[in-house]
C-alpha cells in the first residue's frame, strides 16, 4: 500500500506532500517528500496512491452556504430566541469541526471565518481536477481521499501537538519528530529525516499520510447516520481510533 499526505496551504510555497510505502511487513518507509507542491503535483500524488489524507477542509458548513445564499437574495432570517454567538456557531463550524472539538478539545480553524478558506478554495479546484480524471472524491472519506487533522491525530496518539509550527526555534519540531519515531520505531524517514526536522509542513504531510493509512484500514471515526448528509457536502475529519502500532499490526 502507498499512502500520501498533503499539508495543503493556499499557495504552493507552504504546501508539502509526503509518500509512505507500507509494502514491507511491519514497516513504513517515507519514500518521498515534496515542498512547494503545486496543484499538478498534488493531483498526480493522489491519483498514484491507494489513499491520500488532505489536511484542509473539503467544504463549507451547509448552514453557512444557505446563509450566504439567503443574504444575497436579501432575506436572511435570524432564529428567534437564539443568542447571536450560538446562531453563528453553526455558520462558522461544520458538523465535523464540532465533533472534533467534542472528542479532542481542539477547535479546527473555521473555513467560513478564517484564512483557511483560501486553502479550501484551492482544494476545491484540486477536487474538481481529480473528478475530471475519473477519481471523484467522497467528502465523507470513502474512496481515494480523506480529510485529516494532524494536530488531533498527534494528540490522539499521545504526541506533542502544539508549539511546533511556524516557530523560529526548530527545537520543538525536532522533539516532535523524535517522539514520533520513539512511538513508531517501524517508521523509517530515511533521507527525508532532515526535511521533517526543518519543515513543519513536511512533518504534517507525514502525519497526514499516517492518518490516510488509518483510514484505509478502517481505524478512524466515521459519520453517524445523522451526520452523513452534512459530511457528504461539508467534509469529514477522520480521527484515528487506535494506537499508532495498529497501522502496521493491522496491515
From TrEMBL:
Source domain of life: Bacteria
Protein name: DUF429 domain-containing protein
Highest classification ranks of the organism: Bacteria, Bacillati, Actinomycetota, Actinomycetes, Streptosporangiales
Amino acid at each position: 500500500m502507498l499512502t500520501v499526505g498533503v499539508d495543503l496551504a493556499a499557495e504552493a510555497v507552504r504546501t508539502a506532500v509526503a509518500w509512505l510505502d507500507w509494502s514491507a511487513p511491519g514497516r513504513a518507509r517515507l519514500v518521498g517528500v515534496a515542498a512547494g507542491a503545486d496543484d499538478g503535483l498534488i493531483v498526480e500524488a493522489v491519483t498514484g496512491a491507494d489513499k491520500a489524507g488532505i489536511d484542509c477542509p473539503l467544504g463549507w458548513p451547509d448552514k453557512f452556504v444557505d446563509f450566504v445564499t439567503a443574504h444575497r437574495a436579501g432575506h436572511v432570517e435570524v432564529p428567534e430566541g437564539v443568542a447571536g454567538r450560538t446562531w453563528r456557531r453553526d455558520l462558522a463550524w461544520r458538523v465535523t469541526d464540532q465533533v472534533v472539538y467534542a472528542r479532542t478539545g481542539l477547535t479546527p480553524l473555521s473555513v467560513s471565518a478564517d484564512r483557511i478558506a483560501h486553502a479550501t478554495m484551492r482544494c476545491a479546484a484540486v477536487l474538481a481536477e481529480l473528478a475530471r480524471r475519473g477519481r471523484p472524491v467522497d467528502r465523507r472519506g470513502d474512496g481515494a481521499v480523506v480529510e485529516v487533522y494532524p494536530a488531533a491525530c498527534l494528540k490522539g496518539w499521545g504526541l506533542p501537538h502544539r508549539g511546533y509550527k511556524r516557530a523560529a526555534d526548530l527545537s520543538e519540531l525536532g522533539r516532535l519528530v523524535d517522539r514520533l519515531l520513539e512511538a513508531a520505531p517501524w517508521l523509517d524517514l530515511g533521507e527525508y529525516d532532515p526535511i521533517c526536522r526543518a519543515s513543519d509542513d513536511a512533518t504534517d504531510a507525514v502525519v497526514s499520510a499516517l492518518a490516510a493509512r488509518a483510514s484505509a484500514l478502517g481505524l478512524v471515526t466515521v459519520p453517524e447516520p445523522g451526520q452523513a448528509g452534512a459530511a457528504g457536502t461539508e467534509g469529514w475529519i477522520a480521527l484515528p481510533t487506535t494506537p499508532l502500532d495498529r497501522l502496521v499490526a493491522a496491515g
